[in-house]
Design brief:
Blueprint lengths: L13 E6 L25 H17 L3 E4 H8 L3 H12 L10 H9 L3 H10 L1 E2 L11 H5 L5 E3 L12 E4 L2 E4 L5 H4 L1 H11 L8 E3 L12 E3 L4 E6 L5 H13 L6 E6 L13 E5 L2 E4 L8 E8 L2 E7 L3 H8 L6 E4 L5 H9 L6 E4 L2 E5 L3 H9 L3 E5 L16 E5 L1
């Protein structure tokens, strides 16, 4: 059976993409718990949805079929036995806040139709949803002020991270932070139970002991992948995935591992670099002095690692078998513009075709520079979406590119 997935490039004409429209999970963000949820601010849901809908409409007007994560997962878990199993798996990972009420959470979720059940999983379960109860365990007395039995998943609208596509296969991420680990359950069930997607080859599983997330993986071509070693992707995972891709004859022959600073503002490779054309990249210039690259390839039947002594642009060009690539600096020559626009995801763009991208309108300096380099830029509003620290690439998972 042919795979329903085809992603052999970052810039090939995009035909089908997976999104998650922000929901009530954003309404469950609280100022005192933002760091726990990996947020710095609270998006206003009404406007965030309006911005996300405009993102989806821009994709459709570019000829892209838009599908939604929870719609596909609902189709995957509609059978009663599968519904019960995803609930059981979900409850096993909800943490100590729900200690002693697991059965009540299970009954609550089981009572809901599948679409509402999935929305509730993402929204989180407030203590008020299940009514009051007498304290049983010590934690009930100590942590009584915490308002959730099940934490929300506010990061889910960044569909790039919990699973990602390479060639005709899917990698279910092993997330760096427990707060996002449950997001990968949706990918697990989508790619094992959905009628269309259940036979997709799985190249990485969520149970891998070392973390890797989709924001760090750029499919440069049908033969080459770049993977960032970042705050959230471990070099052990990069090497293991590279070995699987290169030595098991998937079509990938080279993996360029890119070591970037391990900070929140540079959390993934795609927050500092994305591909906008077959030979052009956006780049946050401040990382260039710190970047190290390593080429992983097969030699005599085994994986070998070659540290690269050349600059990032030269390593990318060699990996792509090009004479050169153009690195378009976020914010241009101004350190102030570069820092401000990188913080608002100026380098995080989504290509809908070679030399044609979607970007946040607020990054007008970078967008202007991209246009000067011949790149067609579709701008979308982002006053609320950008509060989650992710741009158009973060918010999308291509399923099929020409």
């Amino acid at each position: 059976m042919d795979s329903p997935i085809r992603v052999k490039s970052e810039v090939g004409t995009l035909k089908r993409v997976l999104l998650h429209r922000p929901g009530q999970e954003l309404e469950n963000l609280m100022p005192q718990y933002l760091s726990r949820q990996l947020f710095e601010d609270i998006p206003y849901l009404v406007h965030a949805r309006e911005e996300h809908d405009q993102f989806a409409e821009t994709l459709r007007q570019s000829g892209v079929e838009v599908v939604y994560l929870l719609d596909l997962v609902a189709e995957a878990v509609k059978e009663p036995a599968v519904k019960e199993q995803i609930i059981a798996d979900f409850i096993s990972e909800i943490g100590i806040s729900a200690r002693g009420v697991e059965e009540r959470v299970r009954e609550y979720l089981l009572s809901l139709p599948v679409p509402q059940m999935l929305a509730s999983m993402v929204r989180g379960v407030r203590k008020s949803d299940l009514g009051s109860r007498e304290p049983i365990h010590l934690v009930d007395y100590i942590d009584d002020a915490y308002p959730f039995f099940v934490d929300p998943m506010p990061n889910l609208y960044f569909t790039r991270d919990p699973f990602f596509m390479i060639d005709g296969g899917v990698c279910i991420s092993s997330m760096a932070n427990n707060v996002r680990a449950r997001e990968t359950l949706f990918g697990q069930y989508l790619f094992t139970h959905h009628p269309l997607y259940k036979n997709t080859p799985m190249l990485h599983t969520r149970n891998d002991p070392f973390s890797i997330e989709g924001g760090d993986v750029l499919v440069l071509s049908s033969e080459a992948v770049a993977i960032g070693m970042s705050q959230r992707t471990d070099p052990h995972a990069v090497e293991a995935l590279a070995k699987r891709l290169i030595c098991e004859e998937t079509g990938i022959q080279r993996v360029l591992a890119i070591d970037i600073p391990k900070t929140r503002s540079y959390m993934h490779l795609d927050t500092v670099m994305t591909m906008v054309d077959v030979d052009k990249f956006t780049i946050h210039p401040s990382i260039l002095p710190a970047v190290r690259t390593f080429l992983l390839k097969k030699k005599d039947g085994a994986l070998v690692i070659e540290p690269q002594k050349r600059k990032l642009a030269e390593s990318l060009a060699e990996t792509l078998h090009l004479d050169k690539v153009t690195m378009i600096h976020c914010g241009g020559p101004s350190a102030i513009d570069a820092a401000r626009e990188q913080w608002n995801d100026g380098t995080n763009t989504l290509a809908v075709a070679p030399g044609e991208i979607i970007a946040f309108s607020r990054n007008y300096v970078t967008n202007g520079i991209l246009r000067e380099h011949g790149v067609k830029v579709h701008e979308i509003p982002s006053a609320e979406l950008s509060r989650g620290r992710g741009g158009p690439r973060c918010m999308s998972m291509p399923l099929w590119r020409e």
